[in-house]
Amino acid sequence: MNIAATILGAALIFVVLKDAFEAVVLPRRVEGRFRISIWFYRLVGVPWFKLAGSVQSTRRRENLLSYFGPLSLILLLVLWAFGLILGFALLQYSSGEHLHLAGQSVTFGTLVYLSGETFFTLGYGDIVPASSISRALAVLEAGMGFAFLGIVVGYLPTIYSAFSRREVQISLLDAYAGSPPTATELLGRLGSSEQRLLDQLFRDWEKTAGDVLESHISYPPLCFFRSQHRNQSWLAALTAILDATSLVIAGVEGVTSDQARLTFSMARHALVDLAQLVNARYDPNYPDRLSAEEALRLRQGLSERGLELNQGAEFEQKLMTLRTMYEPYAHAIGRALVMALPPWIAAEQKRDNWQVGPWDRAIQASSLAGLGHHADTRKRLEDHF
Predict the structure, then answer these.
(1) For residue 198, what is the enclosing H or E element?
(2) What is the dihedral angle through the alpha carbons of 307, 308, 314, 317, rounded to the nearest 10 degrees?
(3) Hey, CA dihedral for 300, 306, 312, 314, is it positive or negative?
(4) Which of 9, 74, 193, 347 lies in the 20 to 30 Å Cα band around 289?
(5) Which of the two residues, 375 and 316, has the higher pLDDT score?
(6) Is residue 165 in some structural domain?
């Protein structure tokens, strides 16, 4: 018996099973330097995101980034399977004799093939374990392979179910806060006259932030899954909600802040924990998202919609304190995942995603050609919304 091969094979199987259990089954974040999944995402993810960040075209960059989440998940499962196959091949190599029905000599490469067909329960029978230990290993590997495939079958639907729940809430936010979402649009569209709707939205996002935190810690690859539209992301949505709740907590005349405080706490909790999950690093020189000029535009924009921010140094100090509680984490995540943060106030008025369609230009052209009254009606409807 080859002792070195036995130790190496057993250690490899243990490391793979431990990593797969912590990533798939264990519903919590696990600290550890020697984890296959952590090293995999560092070795593959960092170059991928750097490459994507160098692409100038927004469309091409987002297309490249959108592949990483699902592809990394598949590659990680393949890596786990190969690790188990290689580990059992090492154990078979050290366990004793094997019979090759074609009369050829049994090499280590042949044992890797035997381990692979046993793991995936193919059972061609062209290589037969001859010792009791190697037969027991074959039975154990076949059972482990069957269990592994069963876990994968259950793992993928769970991942996409959590992704779907997240994307539904991001899409719903579009009509409230614009595309991309901004705090100014969110508060301006609801306003003080819609306190009930504003509190309900904040309440929904308190639950959404908790769901994102739980699901993304349980299934870390979800952090890399991109949203359906290029101007949307889970990071932009959480940041816009934190911006809006910060303004309400700092002081908006006629708007109470009870629910906003609860939502801010949960959203900030999610952002801080997810920053650690994606290995985001703190940058003390992160850019200021709300310059003095932007703050003046924000105040004027809300005033035009009937909302007045509180005046004085107390408001400014409170808003700055709230911003420093989450903006460094948002910037760090955005830099790590190549995700753009939303502005506090949109630079220009753009249509929401629900207002944009692939036939719009053709419809407008036909309207101008002879159906002008339809174009006028559409314009009035868009202005109403």
Answers:
(1) helix 195-218
(2) 50
(3) negative
(4) 193
(5) 316
(6) no
